[in-house]
Amino acid sequence: MIKEFKTQATLNVGLEILWAALAKDFMIIGPKVIPNIVKDVQLIDGDGGVGTTLIFNFFPGVSPINYQRERIAEFDELTHEIGLEVIEGGYLSQGLSFYQTNFQLSQIEEDKTLVNVKISYDHESEIEERVKPTKTSQSTLFYLDRLEKYLLHGALEDNV
Asked: Locate the Bet v I/Major latex protein domain: which residues (predicted)?
């Protein structure tokens, strides 16, 4: 039975800038946001919309996993929602049988966006403490924090 865990974060970045970084340019931006973790992101199949398949390659020794293959399961530009389902490697290698993260963005102010995160997961047996969604959500929130810092500071430095 699929279970859900929800959390949220407020980022001091405008909605459209954040949406572009999170849903459209993540292949380029992801490795820049967490350069010591993500080696690269490769497009395997698709055009960036629903059904697109990507591989996130991680640096050795950073994590017990070397890669994670994900499929864009949801993509809605009107509601600013994207859902990424792990289809191979990653958390599926650590005891989960299903893992999907959905991000839904809502503008709070001109330069402030609320990000609602929903993690849907399932497992066939007891999972270890390190892959429980309360723990995995910490890595998602860490990424959002680093993304905010990158968009506010790092992206400017890259363009100099």
From this structure: 31-153
CB 79 within 8 A of CB 55: no
Rounded CA-CA distance 19/37 in Å is: 22
Domain of 82, CATH number, reads: 3.30.530.20
Each residue of 23-59: pLDDT tens digit?
999 889 989 999 998 999 999 999 999 999 999 999 9
Tokens read off for 25: 């340019």
* Tens digit of each residue's pLDDT (9 = 90 or more) over 90-99: 888 877 889 9
Q: Could you identify the residue written with the tokens 């102010």?
A: 109
Q: Angle formed by the axes of helices 26-33 and 133-149, to 10°?
A: 100
